[in-house]
Write a structure and sequence with these properties.
mainly alpha
Length: 88
């Protein structure tokens, strides 16, 4: 395919040949650049998944701690003797 394009460009002059050579170079360079971009994006996605799992774990730990902090208060308010008993 490229050979036919170059033959046609040669018949049209030097500028046509230079354009075709530059076009082929840009297409090949763009392909390698695209491959590097995809690798970078995949690496960032892996890191994002790790970060999301850490965030989920932290949120679960915070909710457990909040539940544990609120439980003694509920028990202390439910005492009928009028004195608060706090469990530690």
């Amino acid at each position: 395919m490229w050979e036919e394009i170059l033959k046609t460009a040669l018949s049209n002059g030097l500028w046509a040949v230079l354009f075709c050579v530059l076009l082929m170079y840009q297409l090949r360079d763009g392909r390698t650049r695209e491959h590097k971009y995809r690798e970078t994006i995949n690496a960032l996605l892996d890191r994002l998944e790790t970060l999301e799992s850490v965030e989920k774990g932290v949120n679960e730990a915070v909710s457990i701690l909040r539940r544990q902090e609120s439980e003694p208060r509920k028990k202390a308010k439910s005492c009928s003797a009028g004195t608060e008993v706090l469990r530690v």
